[in-house]
Amino acid sequence: LSSDSCQNPSQKEAQASSLQVEHEAESLSCTVLLQSFQTLFERTLKEALHPLQEKHQHSLPASEACLPPVFTRYHEGLRYALLSPGKRFRPFIAYSVAQALRANQENLQWALSFGVALESIHAFSLAHDDLPCMDNDELRRGLPTLHKQFSEWEALLIGDTLQTFALHHVLHDEKIPLGLRLWASQCLTQAILGPGLIEGQYADMWFSHHEREPLPKSLQSLAWIHRMKTGAMIEASVMLGVAAGLWPKDIETHPTAKLLHQWGRCIGLLFQLSDDILDATHDTHTLGKTAGKDASQHKWTYVTALGLHEARAQQTLLLEEAQACLYTLNHQHALDTLDTLHELTTFVAHRNQ
Ligand code: GRG
Fold first, then answer.
1. Mean pLDDT for the stretch of residues 196-216
2. Is 265 within 8 Å of 298 (Cβ atoms)?
3. Which H/E stretch holds residue 311?
4. CB 93 within 8 A of CB 344
5. Residue 314 CA to ligand 1 centre (angstroms)
6. What is the pLDDT of residue 1?
7. Given this model, what pLDDT does residue 129 score?
8. What is the pTM of this model?
9. Ligand 1 neighbours (beta carbon < 6 A)
10. With CB atoms counted within 10 Å of each terminal CB, which end of the chain scores lower, N or C?
11. Which residues contact 222 (CB under 8 A, 6 or more apart)?
12. What three-state secondary structure class fits 13?
């Protein structure tokens, strides 16, 4: 019997509401940290695109006067996709993990550079996910989606660019040790191909196109799709933060890295589970993207499969599992710099956009 069962209902209620207050305070504190990170990161992200633009300017023969305006529009598209106001959550995870591992200023710069790559892959995935042949969405981050603002073929090519640019950025960052650049590139390709982002999206699309067929849909398969489609990039964000913080230690075998990876798995799944709940409970204006799409597009999500109540129960279980990883890191591995990661965990579960 858990100690819980010895409590009377009013004790339980009081405990639940004090936990809620604690969660709200942690979420709020994470929101403040995230905002100050965004200010720092926005400059890095803008600067990262410069070499790409310069490459085109310098490679064009002076006689080709008709080409510069073409590429001006292409670069506008890249900026629109990459710099539109997202939460920058994946770069924030990488940076916060590196900070929790007491990374110095140089290592934190590496984490920022990995953040550019993470955000670029993320922007590619959003641009392609919004296309008419996929989720067919018109609103993203409170703005017209990339293909609405530009066109379908432009959104496709800009998405392609952003995916390759992510790896280009990491591989060419000479401030990062070469071995770490290679490790980071492998980590990113694994998040995409792992199986990862693309297979997760493929399975998700398959089920939304075959919703009438009697397919064996277990909760385990749903968790797998969520883990691949959304979780893989969040796990990669954690591991890139670990690499920036621990390099040149062996990341594959380091006990702290293993526990942080486990935490990353939990928050990755939690992020998508919260997204399922937000889609069903919040309006389009708050989300900055079309609400209620999972039900209207027959998506297979925790909410459509289990109902809102059970989805919330699963959310609580995952939140506890994620926090348990951090407690172990703190108590068994004497890592005492985990406040932000605790706050970040609660934020993932209780975010409202
Ligand atoms: C097209 C290969 C390919 C993959 C698409 C990203 C994705 C896979 C699908 C998007 C569908 C979706 C909304 C999934 C929910 C989780 C998620 C990735 C939400 C968007 O991420 P946020 O909340 O967005 O971090 P911002 O705008 O803040 O960057």
1. 84
2. no
3. helix 308-331
4. yes
5. 20
6. 32
7. 97
8. 0.90
9. 86-87, 89, 122, 125-126, 128-129, 141, 197-198, 201, 229-230, 272, 275
10. N
11. 300, 301, 302, 305
12. helix
How many Å separate Cα 290 from the centre of its chain? 19
Cα(205)–Cα(269) distance, integer angstroms: 18
pLDDT tens digits, residue range 52-83?
877 666 666 666 666 667 788 999 999 999 99
For 12, the enclosing helix (H) or strand (E) is: helix 9-59
CA atoms within 13 A on the CB side of 250: 4
Question: pLDDT at position 16, please?
Answer: 62
Ligand 1 centroid distance, CA of 105 (Å): 30
The answer to whether 164 and 158 have CB atoms below 8 angstroms apart is no
Dump the DSSP string for 112-143: HHHHHHHHHHHHHHHHHHTSTTTT--SEETTE
What type of residue is 91?
A: P
The tokens for 296 are: 């209207």
Give me the chain's average pLDDT, please: 89
Measure the CA–CA gap between 96 and 323, rounded to whole angstroms: 16
| Cα of 140 vs its chain's centroid, Å | 15
- Token pair 């990170």 is at which residue? 37
On the 0-12 / 13-18 / 19+ scale of CB atoms within 10 A, 212 is: exposed
* Listed residue (207, 202, 197, 201) closest to 298, CA to CA: 207
**Phi/psi of residue 310, nearest 5 degrees:** -70, -35
| pLDDT score recorded for residue 151 | 98
Q: Which residues contact 223 (CB under 8 A, 6 or more apart)?
A: 269
CA of 201 to the centre of ligand 1 (A): 10
